[in-house]
Amino acid sequence: MAPVIHTPTGNHVTATVDPRLFGQYKMAAELVGVDEARDELIKILIDGDEVFIQQGMIVSIVGFGGLGKTTLANAVYEKISAQFECRAFASVSQTPDMRKLLKHILYNFGKNINDETLDEGQLINELREFLHEKRYFIVVDDIWDIPVWKTIRCALPHNDRGYRIIATTRNVNVAEHAGGAYNMKPLSPHNSRILLNRRVYGSDHTEKSPDEELAEVSDKIIKKCAGVPLAIITIASLLASKRRNKMDWYEVYNSIGTGMEKSLDVENMRKILSYSYYDMSPHLRTCLLYLSVFPEDCEILKDRLIRLWIAEGFIRCEEKGKSLFEIGESYFNELINRSMIQPVYDDYLCIDIESCRLHDMVLDLVRSLSSEENFVTVLSDTEHTSALTKARRLSLQNSEADHASIWGTRSMPQVRSVVAFSSAINQIPALQDFKFLRVLDLKGCNLSQGYSLKYLGSLFHLRYLNLSNTGIDQLPKEVENLQFLETLDIQRNNISHLLLNTAQFKHLLCLLVDFQTIVSNGIWSLKSLEELPWLHMDDELMDHIEELGLLTELRVLYMNLHTDKWNNKIVETLSKLQKIQTLCISQYGGQRNVGGLDACVAPGHLRILYTKGSCWLSRLPAWMNNPSHLADLCQLYIAVRELQEDDLNILGKLPALTLLDLLVDHESLGIRGRFVVGAGLFSCLVLCKLIGFVEPVVFEQGAMPRLAMFDFDFHVREVREIAGSDGGLDLGLQNLPSLQTVYVYCRSGGASKEEVEEAKAAVRKAAEIHPNKLKLEIR
């Protein structure tokens, strides 16, 4: 089985995400000016006597784009959703696919519908039946018109269990029709100033500007933003990219229009966004425009977007030693810093940016500009087929129209890109119509129902091919003709063995396959390859492991060992991969090798290392003794048979480490004694997993200040011996100020049931004294 690795997407590149932004994308409850409105809404929704609570209720948050309706709804959702049996958060958008939306709501409520034949009416009935006797809570975000609301409301039954519905909308008529209208208020001047100062100067700064020279112009800019958070953040992000100079700031102030102070309407908001857009360099504007290929409210995977940029030719090699992907990541980070895109963090730790979103007002601007420049043509119904005659890039979204009514017999040699989404499966054109295509992205479209890939091999100019999650079980042999291909993504399919001669893909940068897919023919010839997750290593490939050393451009490598063989040349081979940033070696079944990687020395820019599932290190490697050598290492998953307390201190000095998953073999080696993590160690660690220590590790005050999740095991009899007279156990958990969740595995080791319960009680007592009301799970 493949290991779960929480892959960070940031690299040490020219532009990194501005740390002052982190505070803007915390949980909604922590954002500026939200708490008062949140508490007011919660009081409306759930305060009252027993009879009131059992009644159903709808609240409609209404206000124009950028006021923070979604943020407020999400803050309420985070605060009270746990009180309900079923809960869901659904984004509707301007042109919703109702079948997809209803299925999404069902899935969020906990009912998975795999039947693709159910129509809209049947899905409504499924929802009504499922929720009939349940106390449910749902946020229905961004409703544009009354008919859509009526359909959704029909699916949400009225009952006497105390359901709650929050709707958000720009449309006053929708809010009045839904009922319970709550008018969204702008931020006060006080909160507006705090929001601007935090973005420009950092989270430590509140209302007072630290730069007195800029105080006057700051106040004038804040007035123009009229308390609208999106306007404030957008302008503040622009100011943060400029010198702290009064003349530069007044230039911004004078350029964003007049007459905004009393009311910042949609037109004036567009002026602010347009000014920020045109203030960017041309390459960033081009990359932002490309996001118009994605539907509204879509979470856009960062890596996918960057690969698309590369295939379109938007990224040029600007810096020697940097790959196109790293430069593309720099562009992505700059767009975040400008607040033109919103980062989406990983669900697990909320520390790594995996995706992005566009605020709908930014998307409106981008789509308008893209249409004016004939940059992207979005096809969502048959009404816009006239635009196809000049289309260069096609985005196929959300249509019930069939293939014939859209395309007829037209050939479209001018089209360079086709990106299709699952709801537009009927729109996908015949491949022979596009002779000069560079990008074909059919991710998530079910191609198993008869769509032919027969002519795929005739797309000689293709740079990017994404067929992930399309239901295919093989690629046609003609794909070998695609000699300019740079990205091939066939993940989440049923391909057990890729039967192509991959040696034909001389320019391939990224080969994305599933961990069980065998790719053997020609794999060692891919000299340009930078990303290879996964490489299925069987006996034959392991016998030729030294050829892996020919792939010297690799940045990302995941090896899955489907063999009990261990080739001693693996260390020498890995030493040749000097550009590697992510290295994962996992074992599919079988035993861990012991000592096979002891002599391995990692390159200095390694970011993720996973060897825990495949190999025991005898001791902590000497190359880890130098923290400056591993300045970028942020995730470490290793198994070390014998670890000393000094070794733990060495790991604690790694400057960028956010995740540590450490397994030791101390029980079988007879190593006892308590390890202590001292003050100042593991300053960035967010998740820590320590398994195999005979006695639990102890934390001193000042250790692991950012740790949010701790996972460890303990031996019952050892804990009984070190427990205090009051039955408590001093683990030092109270010294970890950010701790939220603790997972504990209890090893009985022949102890009686009573002894096990005593030990568990001691751990509970240790957790209870923590001020954060820890979530504790003992297994």
From TrEMBL:
| Keywords, sorted A to Z | Plant defense, Repeat
**What terms describe the molecular function in GO for this protein?**
ADP binding
Q: Where is the Disease resistance protein winged helix domain?
A: 293-366
Supply the PANTHER family for this chain: DISEASE RESISTANCE PROTEIN RP (PTHR23155), OS12G0273300 PROTEIN (PTHR23155:SF1116)
User: Which parts of the sequence belong to the NB-ARC domain?
Assistant: 39-197
Query: Which Gene Ontology terms describe the biological processes this protein takes part in?
Result: defense response to bacterium; innate immune response-activating signaling pathway; plant-type hypersensitive response
Residue stretches making up the Disease resistance R13L4/SHOC-2-like LRR domain = 414-773
Species source reads Eragrostis curvula (weeping love grass)
Q: What is this protein called?
A: Uncharacterized protein
